[in-house]
Amino acid sequence: MPLIRSVDVISYAHQYDYAFMLTGDIPNWWVWGYWISPLSYAFNAFSVNEMFAPRWSKPSSDGLNSLGVATLNNFDVYAEKYWYWIGVAALLGFTILYNVLFTLALMYLNPVGKKQAIISEEEASEMEAGGDSKEEPRLVRKESNKGNSTSKQLQL
């Protein structure tokens, strides 16, 4: 079923020609989405890296630029070599930013549903029985021998 939905989305995008927009075709009120997207930086970096490779250095049909630079200009990609490093730095920055935001979200946001902890069957049966023990909270496991059986107790 998800495959059908993704095919529907792709066919819808192709039907209305929204699958790919060049930088110059983006409306002014929508250009912020281009600049905050990590994919735009990745696309620019990979494109610049590929098109400045020696295999694309042959002269283009206009005779002014290399074939790689003409291709970059054709697709409205920045045609300077330093855009590779801008893309690398931006992707590294996005990685750090998203990791920090994810860590902060895990630290300070409450879970959506009910908190559920996993406890042993022994502890669950003690809790159900109403165990009126006045022990301190037990955090560290320590093995102790009582009679013939070995039991594990949590001790502070």
From TrEMBL:
TM ranges: 82-109
Keywords noted in UniProt: Membrane, Transmembrane, Transmembrane helix
Protein name, entry field: Plant PDR ABC transporter associated domain-containing protein
InterPro entries noted in UniProt: PDR_assoc (IPR013581)
Pfam families in the cross-refs: PDR_assoc (PF08370)
Keyword Membrane: yes
Superkingdom of origin: Eukaryota
